[in-house]
Amino acid sequence: MTDAPDLRPALILGAGSDIGRETARLLAAKGRPIQLAGRRPEALARDAADIAARHGVPVTTHAWDATDLAAAGAFLDGLPEMPGIVLCAVGLLGDQEETQDDAEAIARIVATNFTGPAAMLEAAAARLSRLPGKTAVVGIGSVAGDRGRARNYWYGAAKAGFATMLSGLRQRYAATDLLVTLVRPGFVATAMTEGMDLPGPLVISAEQQAKLIVEGVEKRRHHVIHWKWALLMSVIRNLPEAVFLKTRF
Ligand SMILES: NC(=O)c1ccc[n+]([C@@H]2O[C@H](COP(=O)([O-])OP(=O)(O)OC[C@H]3O[C@@H](n4cnc5c(N)ncnc54)[C@H](OP(=O)(O)O)[C@@H]3O)[C@@H](O)[C@H]2O)c1
């Protein structure tokens, strides 16, 4: 156990995600001990062994389900060491057409993308803000949360809720050394987007997205978004509603 903030572990929630896994690797390469958490911790064992062998840092695995909101605080308190960075990379895109008529699917989308991650980062912020030195909680939202679209509005609405919660959390802890960062990926080539017909120039790799995240934390940025998506979303957000309704993207 250490009081040195740079040597505290990074906890990756949803560590089986492609973006989460790549971010864990980059942080480990910088000497951070790593805690990998997911709902199937046995599936994280291979990544844990690989990261530990390549980077010579301790790596542990932990069971955590984002939809178990009440368990967030106890989960953190049960870790072998309180992390200095907590990244929530959990997400569930779901199928919009199946979701919109199914109350259980709606609840699952909202719990996985909004209330679960938000409750966890709330609990993490309370603990990390009390640690000495600079700490960070990082949530992965989505540009889908910037403006609701017919093709994925339950997912987008949940990500928008998560973004708003992180904005409030950031203001609440503004006088402390806790950084609260929202990451808004556009299209990233991962399991989530596999098989989708995406516009090539707007797609980045999970590793590129992970680099943006790590750089954002190092530079103490509140928002992380690829410059192409920042430009595009500033246009999309400002389209008049009458024009937006006729678009198909
Ligand atoms: N890929 C993109 O284009 C894109 C764009 C915008 C935002 N994002 C966001 O980026 C983040 C990472 O996504 P990704 O693209 O790397 O997708 P991914 O590989 O599909 O990862 C999603 C992860 O979420 C985990 N998860 C789902 N439900 C969970 C639950 N109830 N409890 C714990 N973990 C749960 C999954 O765990 P299992 O392994 O157990 O299924 C999986 O590891 C997500 O927040 C996603 O919404 C992605």
From TrEMBL:
Assigned keywords, A-Z: Oxidoreductase
RNA-binding keyword on record: no
Any GO molecular function: oxidoreductase activity
Family: Belongs to the short-chain dehydrogenases/reductases (SDR) family.
Protein name: Short-chain dehydrogenase
Protein's organism: Albimonas pacifica
Source species taxonomy: Bacteria, Pseudomonadati, Pseudomonadota, Alphaproteobacteria, Rhodobacterales
